[in-house]
Every structure is written in C-alpha cells, then in structure tokens.
Amino acid sequence: MNHFTVDVLFDAEADVWVAQCDALGIATEAADYEALTRRVWAVAPEMYAANGFGAQTDNFRLAFRHTQEAHAVA
To answer: Count of CB atoms within 10 A of residue 59's CB?
Structure first.
C-alpha cells in the first residue's frame, strides 16, 4: 500500500485552506478544512492513476499534515 503526505495550511491573506501533495501532483484549496479534505479525497484516485501508481481503485493512504504559521509581534 502506498502512503502519501498532504501538506495543509491556512492562507490568512487569501482566507482559504490550501492542500498540496507533490507526489500525486495535487494542489487545491477550499473555504474550510473539511471541504479541503473532501476535495483532496475526490481528486486523489485520479491523480494516483495519472501518476502511474496503479488503478484508481488501488488502496493508498493519505496523511494530512497541518502546518500552522505564527509571527511574533514586536
């Protein structure tokens, strides 16, 4: 079974959640985290097959890694 990491962050300037998985060629965004994960799961099987990992129905896992940025106020 193949495992892929999807990096997730909130872009405060654009007020949007962003997901990226270089191995699968996924880069997408959504208004909230739940919509974002649904969007990734919707496109992941097609991208899995398109990148030569196997058929869309093959088993694979996605791990969502959320990175939070913070800036210190001086």
So the answer is: 8
Running DSSP on this structure, what letter comes out for residue 50? H
**Tokens matching residue 26:** 């996924």
- In contact, 11 and 66? CB cutoff 8 Å: no
Query: Going residue by residue through the chain (74 aa), what tens digit of pLDDT does each one get?
Result: 899 999 999 999 999 999 999 999 999 999 999 999 999 999 999 999 999 998 887 889 999 999 887 666 76
Contact 73, 14 (CB under 8 A): no
CA angle, corner 64, sides to 29 and 59, nearest 5? Answer: 105
- The model carries a pTM of 0.86
Q: Return the amino acid letter for 43.
A: V
For residue 15, what are the contacts with CB-CB under 8 A and spacing of at least 6? none
Rounded to a whole number of angstroms, the CA Rg of the chain reads 14
